[in-house]
Structures are given as C-alpha cells and as structure tokens.
## 1
Amino acid sequence: MPTTYLTALTDPKRSPSAHRLAWLAADTHGIPRGSAFLRLFDKPGQDHLAEVEVHVHPAERRDGVGTALLHAAVEAAREAGRRSLLAQAKADSPGAAFLSERGFRDVLTLIYTRLSLTDQEPGDAAWAAIAERDHPGYRLHSWDGTVPDALAETFAASRRAMDDMPMGETDYGTVVWDVERLRAAAQAIADRGELLHTVVAIDTADDTIAGFTELVVPGDGKGDGQHYSTGVLPEHRGHGLGLWMKAEAIRQARERHPNLTALLTDTADANHAMRAINDTLGYRPTHRSTEYQLDLPVG
C-alpha cells in the first residue's frame, strides 16, 4: 500500500457564518491522491455543526486514502467542539457505502429536480398565468443582488420561514439570519460572478415580507440556474404564495435570460408542500442523494 501524506490547509477567506479547513492527500512523489474539506459553522444556532466532503480519484480508491482524509476531518471537528458532522452522497453510490461503513447514519433524503426551459410544457404561458393570479392582501416584489435597505430588516425577519422545514433526523440547528448575513451571502454570490434574483410576497396590510424565493443564474445568463431557498412564514401559509413566487421567478428568468436551458432545485423527500409546487411547475426528478450524519462525543 503506497504511503499517503496529508497536508493541512486553511481557507484564507472566512465568512461571517463559517470557516473551512482542508487536507490534500499525496503520495511520496507529491502526486495528489485526494482531498477533504471541512466546513465549521460559527453562528449561534449552528455552532455545534460541521460538514465534510471527501474526494478521492477513482484510481486511488480502496487504498486507505479516503479513510485517512476522513479521519483528519473528524478529529478536527471533534477538537473544534462540534457534536454533529454531516456528509452527502448519491443514493446507492460508493460514497454512500463508504460513509455507512464508517459510522455515518442516513438522516435525510434529498430529491434533485430539473425544469427544462427548452421544452414546450408547461411553457411560458402556464408559468405566466400562475404568476399573474391575484392574491388578495399580497403583492409581489423583486430585486437583484443585495436586498434594498428599505426591505433589509423585514427580509431578515422572514428567514424564520425556513426554521421548520422538514430536515428528517438531521441535527441541523437553526440558521440565525440578520442583515449582515444577508448582505454577506449576496456578496459571496456576486464574487463568484453569478446573479442573485429574489422574489418576495409582501403583506399589503403592513408592508412586511410574508415569503421569498431566490434564484441564482450564471453571470453570462447561459446554462442552468439554481434555486436557493424558498419559504413562507407560517402565519401566511395556505394562500398559494410559494407557487406564486416561484412561478414569477421562472417568468422573470425566461424574460431576462433567454439562453438559460434549465432551472435546478433540491427538496427534502419529506417536504411534500414544496415537492407539490415543483411538480405543478414542471420540475422532473433527476436523482436522489442522502445526507449522512456522524454523532461526535461531546467533552
């Protein structure tokens, strides 16, 4: 078995909510064999949590490389005081077997879907018809990039719509959003050269945001866009706002980025409400992945 050397690396860019560690595995000649990335969440509500990604070239597998990388990440997470370590793998893949054999348990199934923008169905007319429906007591509003100052506080408050989303047995905690975090997230997307579009439903009684949906598009407007979060505050559910906002996001994407080929999204298997919205809009499943969790001893 060839000797494997690990080189520890630290990501020089630390976000307000998390930081990353990394390891590069190489042989005695310095030829890379694999890598691991550990994301340590730092904000209150999630500072018990870490995520790991392990990548080993197919030709280097079954030689202890992945085990060595994972061990380094697990020890770093434990030393940082994290109690839960998450990892993701496609269902029935070698990665899924690798995690299961090393003590990770299956806590969540994610369904990945794709909405083709080149097919005829459901088509622009159907999406526009949904977006143009009247919803008494609410109006739609949208912006690009960072949230406007006038809506920043109510947008941050609306993020609690995600607090009760179905997450299976995942020890995910609660994401605490404030204006600073919203702006940092938008800036990170802009720094990658991508475009963030946000559509919100506003309660006309008090001009607060009742729900939101986010779509990220490649900077050149070509290829596939990616849906980020979609949520409706509990007190505003039952009015069809999720479907309304997402249809409007699709309508705008079609109008502004005619060279997009598809929109992608992923949804927890148990999130029946969002899965129904995606089905109505024409999203079709492409694959499933499984979220795995390793419980780390505390203290």
## 2
Amino acid sequence: MTWQRRLNEALRRYAGVRFERVSAARPDGPSDGPSDGAAETSPETPRPPADPAHDRLLTAPVFILSPVRSGSTLLRAMLDAHPLLRAPHELHVRRLSVGYGTSLARRAMEELGHNQADLEHLLWDRVLHRELARSGKRYIVDKTPANAFAYQRIATCWPDARFVFLLRHPASIASSWYEAGAGKRTPEEAAADALRYMKAVRRARKGLAGLTVRYEDLTADPERETRAICAFLDVPWAPEMLSYGTPGVISKGLGDWQDKIRSGTVQPGRNLPAPEDVPEPLRPMCRDWGYL
C-alpha cells in the first residue's frame, strides 16, 4: 500500500472522509440540450472498428437526424410498425460512456488495441443490438434528435450506418418547441434553441449521404413518403406503417408525449406560416431548406 493510500485510509477511518481522483471533464461537445457545437469528440480519438466482423453486432443501423419537434416520433412510430424495422423510443446511447477505473485496466485494454472511444462504441453497438435482437426484426432505427450533434461520431462508430434527415418548416418547429415548453421559454428563446438543432442537422446533411424527408410531405402523403423510405432502406413497403397504433414509451424527454402522437394514425400538420410571419432569425434556415 502506497503512502497516499495509507493516508487516505487513515482519513477515512478517523475523520470519515477520503480523497478520490476526479476525472478531467470530457470534451464531449454539446449536451443533449441545445448547442451550437459543430462536432462531438471523445477523450481519445474515435475511429472506425478495426475488425468490423467482430467489433460490431449491428448491420446497417438507421439513424433519423432531425431537429426537435420535427415529427421524428411520428416517423419512428411508422417505421416501428414495419415488420423488419425496430424503432424504439429515443435511446441517447451516445451519452453512454466507459471508464478504465485503474491504470492497469487502461494498459490491459491498450494491449488489446482498444482506446476509450473504441470501448464506448462497443457498448453502444451492444445496447442497440440487444434491443434489435429482442424484437426479432432485421434493422434498428434510432431517432434521438441530439444525435445530430454527434453525426460524425455515429458515422465513425458504424461505417455502414444509413441516415434519414427529417426536416420541417423552421417556424413550425420553433412554435411547437415553444408550446412544448409549457411556459419555460419565450417564443424568441424557443426559436433560438430550436435553431441550434437545425444547424446541427444542416451540418450533418452536408457531411453525410442520406435520404431527406419533409414532415409536411409525410403528413400530406404518408404512403408515398414511406414507400420512398422503404426503397432507401431496401425493405418492402408495409401498409401497417400508415396505421401504426399507439407507440410504446410515450414520455417527455424520450419523444413526443402529447395527444396527437397517441392517435395511432397520421394527423395533418399545422398550416405553414405566411412568409412575412417568419421570425427574422429563422429566415436564413427557411431559405436554406426551401421554405422561403
């Protein structure tokens, strides 16, 4: 036992206190709340799996990248109704982390060729694979909106991942985000918060290949849009997607919890705002996404 440990043990025994090593704050980029962070990093460099056949259990996972309040819970419920697609509630797996605990644990993992990011990727893959295996389906779909802040990390973890970008009129997103806040933020604050998610999705669309779907099109013609999604995912279209039933885990913080999503069928979207009614901070994004 080192003198440091002996001193710590004495302090614990006679004074009821002890010192513990505090890990340095992780530069994880944005939290699951709004952020302007362009990318998410790890304490050690994220990298693709060295041996994909053994390092990954999942095949071609699907990620819906979208801002908050953009209809992602509706889309995930429709996809989960497909017999080959498992789309659970928001999983936030990118926030699952691992630690070595001791320097010997670090050395042992380094001898196996793993850094901390590798170990986190193994954990993420295992959690998603377990959910998929329990469902008996073929592909997992994760729609956590905050994943847009970590799109590079996700694409690194799963090089065969497929991405669906879900867009909605920025002013409608901001209005819905304000209404969902139940007085916690002003309309201006809601617009600013939602805009951070929109910017993250814009970065992801520039950095990744994928399919873009608009909420307005999905609610106006759900069969056409779901057929396009199924074609992109290389699965047959399933009519069950149009009457998805009550989605599981309707809970604030894990997806849309309000009455509209409980209906079990696609409901019409809200009317789009007139161009002159779009708040000025949202106008550039509206133009970028083709709404102005």
